[in-house]
Hints:
Rossmann fold, alpha/beta, globular, eight-stranded mixed sheet, 9 helices
Amino acid sequence: MIDLEWIAMTTHPTPSPEPTQPPRQTGATSPSRAPRDYLLQLFSLEGRVAVVTGGSSGIGRAIAGALARAGASVVVLARGEAGLAATVEELTAEGCRAAWVSADLSTRDGVRTAAERAAGVFGEPDILVNSAGINLRPPMDELGEDVWDATMAVNLEAPFLLGQRFGPGMAERGYGRIIHISSQQAHRAFVQSGAYGASKGGLEALARSQAEAWSPRGVTCNLLVPGFVMTALNARLSSDPEKVAALAARTMIGRNGLAEDFAGAAVFLASAASAYVTGQSVFVDGGLSVH
């Protein structure tokens, strides 16, 4: 289902009260617009179109919001319509341009259908964020083919298929940004990595292959690597206070991650500022991976 409605809202600042006395003369000139213009040149996403999978919750929702607030027209893909509608309602209420597509990324036909519907909202995307994922981690000796296949379908095959659908078009237009959400389990095994860790390791290799193919034509492909983030995807660990505290102690910052910690990094990787960054795994983990 596609929601093509969005609400355009503008706000007008309240005029500042007149000063009761003339400002002191300091010899300084009025503030320059140059810093603001420079930052807009680097980081503004005005005129860009973004597709964000898994964008109705957790890290994906935070990234969808960040891209929209930076000026992009954002299409959010996920399965649950209630979460999708709530995400888009929040963004459009702020004056952002956003819409949603309900998607089943567990099958090839579902991915292809979602891609076509997403491209039909605001046009072909300049930015693709693959945040959707499943986290099924039974002990390795109990890991069956059903869990393996389900994990690979959503965590690895869907990003591949979406890249194949959108990457060549980005390259033809000369600008594109593909951002995958990876995991610590792509680099080290712990807490029963199983099929999940294997899928994320494959995702990192996929990003490097995409970078090799398309970066010469203006498409960068990178990954954000979270530490432990308090999201629904990590509900199993989040329910254990001792493990949560132990993971926080392993960071250099002294706390576990929040979804909003990924906003700035995502805008950077989606913007012109990251034109010379590609094929990289960018760790946003409070120092967990190097502590």
